[in-house]
UniProtKB/TrEMBL annotation:
Residues 39-171 form the PX domain. Residues 209-236, 346-406 form a coiled coil. Residues 1-10 have a biased composition (Basic and acidic residues). Belongs to the sorting nexin family. Residues 1-36 are annotated as: Disordered. Its main location: cytoplasm. GO terms for molecular function: phosphatidylinositol-3,4,5-trisphosphate binding. Residues 23-36 have a biased composition (Polar residues). This is PX domain containing protein. It is found in: Cytoplasm; Golgi apparatus; Membrane. Gene3D superfamilies: Arfaptin homology (AH) domain/BAR domain, Phox-like domain. Keywords: Coiled coil, Cytoplasm, Golgi apparatus, Membrane, Phosphoprotein, Protein transport, Transport. One of its GO terms (biological process) is execution phase of apoptosis.
Length: 424
């Protein structure tokens, strides 16, 4: 069993207050509060284990859930072990139930063929590469679960509750397999959505949605630039680690062949100092990824999901247009039938016309309701994004300051050695 330090000390999630774009009022909502203000739920993924060998190998993650005054949760703490496919299955169930209604379902971490291959083919339990990937995935899965727990609608879903509380293994989600029939259907659906976006253009007459889409484009562009800068910083720090390691080895060789005892001892201590600094650079490089890069990537992924959510509204609008066109055809058919003086199909035509009018009313109502939900989801995201980014940068700067203090401590320990050289 390998322990996972996720470096995520976020506060317990609190119900968010929807934000307001500067030109609009927050849409009214008739949704009752899903849980009281004193309800709390915290989800932590503490450990992971490799199960099985060869092609049957897989990794399970220990999910620990602490609750207080949560509807549907009897115990104060739950501990379960879940496979990565269980997380994907949970995501798929939530998407099928809530996404088309306009609710923002957080995206789960993506599959990795390379990681899957290493897990199944590598027989070493303590492989550093596998452990680093598993830790990174564990942090992503923890963020995924916490996002769901922060949503007042999703947190009370029965599938999510079973995922957190059932100690037994969940039914295998075959639809999450890449080569399954459901996987092929997902590919065709994705291609179909791409062509739909290209073929249909919605003339947006709601200023709020028009401004929100532009705001998402701006946020995506700025966050992408910031992520590239952070990745460059992490890359440069890894290069610094390599250079510091080479320099410390060169100092070690120099101290071993130095004839002056005092100078040799000083060089030896300088070597130890650079070795300690090299380790600190490694720790800081990990924090660059675990705190900053992954936090920014999460925000980008939410924006991508929001874009898909906005497209769900476009698809309903397309259905609305199709229903209106069908209603127009039925009215024209009724008019031609009346002009012809025939009475044989009058009742059927009237029934079809009534059905078409009802379909238009239903789709129009659905479009209005989904638009209202999406507005609420987006405005909630604006508040959460601000708080999350603030917490991310605050925690990162605190860790960076602590690393700099450790650097200073290393040099303060080495300082007396330089004085001994001056004395001689």
């Amino acid at each position: 069993m390998t322990s996972v330090d996720l470096h995520l000390e976020d506060d317990l999630p609190q119900p968010s207050i929807p934000a307001k774009l500067s030109f609009t009022e927050n849409p009214d909502t008739n949704e009752p509060s899903s849980y009281s203000s004193d309800s709390q739920i915290e989800i932590v993924i503490k450990q992971f284990e490799k199960k099985g060998e060869g092609m049957g190998a897989y990794i399970v993650y220990k999910v620990v859930t602490a609750t207080q005054n949560m509807q549907g949760y009897i115990d104060r703490e739950y501990v379960v072990w879940r496979r990565f496919s269980d997380f994907l299955g949970l995501h798929e169930k939530l998407v099928d139930k809530y996404f088309y209604k306009g609710y923002l379902v957080p995206a789960a971490p993506e599959k990795s063929i390379a990681a899957l291959t290493r897990t199944k083919m590598n027989t070493s339990v303590d492989d550093n590469t596998n452990n680093e990937f598993a830790e990174r995935r564990a942090r992503g899965l923890q963020r995924f679960c916490r996002r769901i727990a922060r949503h007042p609608k999703l947190v009370l879903d029965c599938d999510f509750r079973d995922f957190l509380t059932m100690t037994a293994s969940l039914p295998k989600a075959n639809s999450t397999v890449a080569l399954s029939g459901a996987g092929v259907k997902r590919i065709f659906k994705t291609v179909s959505d791409v062509f739909s976006k290209m073929a249909f253009h919605m003339d947006e007459n709601d200023r709020w949605f028009e401004a929100a889409q532009q705001q998402m484009e701006d946020m995506e562009q700025n966050l992408s630039k910031l992520l590239r800068a952070v990745e460059s910083l992490s890359s440069y720090r890894r290069e610094l680690i390599s250079g510091t390691d080479s320099f410390s080895k060169a100092l070690s060789m120099l101290s071993s062949c130095e004839e002056n005892t005092t100078l040799a001892r000083c060089l030896s201590h300088l070597t130890e100092t650079y070795e300690n600094i090299d380790q600190l650079h490694g720790v800081q490089s990990d924090k660059d990824c675990a705190l900053l890069a992954e936090g920014i990537s999460e925000q980008l992924q939410i924006i991508y999901t929001l874009k898909e959510l906005f497209f769900e509204r476009v698809k309903i609008w397309q259905n609305w247009q199709a229903a209106q066109q069908n209603l127009t055809r039925k009215r024209e058919m009724k008019a031609r039938h009346e002009l012809s003086g025939r009475t044989d199909r009058t009742n059927q035509i009237i029934a079809e016309l009534n059905s078409a009018e009802k379909a238009v009313d239903e789709v129009e109502k659905e479009f209005s309701e989904v638009s209202k939900v999406i507005r609420g989801e987006y405005e909630t995201f604006l508040v959460e994004r601000k708080n999350d980014m603030n917490d991310t940068f605050k925690q990162y700067l605190q860790e960076l300051l602590e690393t700099q203090k450790q650097f200073l401590k290393c040099w303060e320990i080495f300082a007396p050695e330089t004085q001994s050289i001056e004395a001689t």
